């Protein structure tokens, strides 16, 4: 059962400006694993990656209605990629399954987060077959 949907659009150049203005922006927003993944990207892909993570975390905050800071903090949410490039969102101490999509076009990144409560059967199947090939 779907219990939350969140969407966010960010300007990549605005995120680039935030990176340049605030020394701690990256460590404030991204987890150590996300920072390591970002460091492997070059040029525009570096900023797109960071903007995508920022936007996905904002979309999660909208899907839950929590916002960022009260119940969930930036580092409680981590978005990494599977080997095939698919983004996977993990949220600390969050009992539901999250799905995330990130897309870039020109100077914008758009993300969508869907929060799903799985039945017991689906939870077991999800645990047993974590890597779903589509």
Automatic annotation (TrEMBL):
Named cofactor requirement(s): Mg(2+)
CC per GO annotation: cytoplasm
Limits of the 4'-phosphopantetheinyl transferase domain: 4-109
Residue sites binding Mg(2+) per the record: 8, 58
A Pfam entry, by short name: ACPS
Catalytic activity: apo-[ACP] + CoA = holo-[ACP] + adenosine 3',5'-bisphosphate + H(+)
GO biological process: fatty acid biosynthetic process
Alphabetical keyword list: Cytoplasm, Fatty acid biosynthesis, Fatty acid metabolism, Lipid biosynthesis, Lipid metabolism, Magnesium, Metal-binding, Transferase
GO molecular function per UniProt: holo-[acyl-carrier-protein] synthase activity; magnesium ion binding
InterPro entries: 4-PPantetheinyl_Trfase_dom (IPR008278), 4-PPantetheinyl_Trfase_dom_sf (IPR037143), ACPS (IPR002582), Ppantetheine-prot_Trfase_dom (IPR004568)
Subcellular location: Cytoplasm
Primary site of residence: cytoplasm
E.C. no: 2.7.8.7
Family: Belongs to the P-Pant transferase superfamily. AcpS family.
Database matches in HAMAP family: AcpS (MF_00101)
Purpose of the protein: Transfers the 4'-phosphopantetheine moiety from coenzyme A to a Ser of acyl-carrier-protein.
Name of protein: Holo-[acyl-carrier-protein] synthase
Organism of provenance: Leuconostoc fallax
Gene: acpS
């Amino acid at each position: 059962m779907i219990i939350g949907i969140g969407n966010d659009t960010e300007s990549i150049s605005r995120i680039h400006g935030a990176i340049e203005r605030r020394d701690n922006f990256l460590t404030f927003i991204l987890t150590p694993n996300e920072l390591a993944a970002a460091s492997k990207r070059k040029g525009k892909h570096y900023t797109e990656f960071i903007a995508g993570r920022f936007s996905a975390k904002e979309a999660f905050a909208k899907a839950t209605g929590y916002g960022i800071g009260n119940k969930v903090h930036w580092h409680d949410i981590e978005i990494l990629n599977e080997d095939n490039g698919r983004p996977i969102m993990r949220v600390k101490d969050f009992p539901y399954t999250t799905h995330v999509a990130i897309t870039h076009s020109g100077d914008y990144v758009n993300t969508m987060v869907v929060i799903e409560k799985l039945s017991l059967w689906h939870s077991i199947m999800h645990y047993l077959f974590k890597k779903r090939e589509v």
